[in-house]
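Record passed on here:
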Amino acid sequence: MKGQAIGVMTAMGESSLQVLDRGDGPGPDSRGLFQQRDNGTWGSYEDRMDPLISSTNFFNALQDIDGWESLSPSEAAHRVQRNADPFHYTQYWVDAIDVVAAVADIEGLDTCLIGGPQLAGVGDDLPWPSSPFCAIGGTCPPGAVSPLGMYNRECTDFALWRLNAMAGVTGDPWKFHNSDLTLGNAEQWLNAWNRQGWDSGQEPEVGAVAYYAANVGGAGSVGHVAIVAGINDDGTVAIEEYNGMAPPDDHQYSTRNIQPDEVSAYLYFPGDD
């Protein structure tokens, strides 16, 4: 069922479930439900415009990806489609599950497929993106502390928000809060993980915290944290973060690709223990 939901999610993201007889700027030769290119991989024009044949070709390509079942749904779709944004399909995942559940008349499919840590956000979904923040080298204005007990719009604030969202918690009472965990600044997160008995290591995983110790990988004296959003075909790691850029672009959302060994450690999703 996960594969079927991935197929529906992909078609939603590519064509809104329509058999399109047109492409777009990046792919003017793209056609059909999956906007498959005229490159010899996806068959003839007639194949790409046929929902049964184009879907079969998509699922065959998905099955050819080693370990696709363990990838996030959007990452699995990205490996097939090779589109520019590996996070593009995330926003369609829940709706795709609803479609498959309705067609197959299966109750509880969402619990089955969404169980465990998921990148439950779509891009910059921090609920307080315009809140006052502490300027670099300056003082903190009133109201600079977020509902999670972190300073607004810092890397730690966004990472803690994403951990809560992955646990299915998007409001008070929070599952992960600084007052309970005493996470502190980014440099202190590895020690906090160790205190809790949570796992860390050197292998990237989707949903893990990419942890930079002080003065590592361009981080300053207080370190840096980001969220692993995907692992690319070339082995680089896609991360999403707040306050990862220099002024005047600081204290806002951004994404980038890093080398897997660029960070000091990966702090794995705590789970329910």
Summary: The chain has a mean pLDDT of 88. The radius of gyration is 20 Å. The first strand starts at residue 200 and ends at 201.
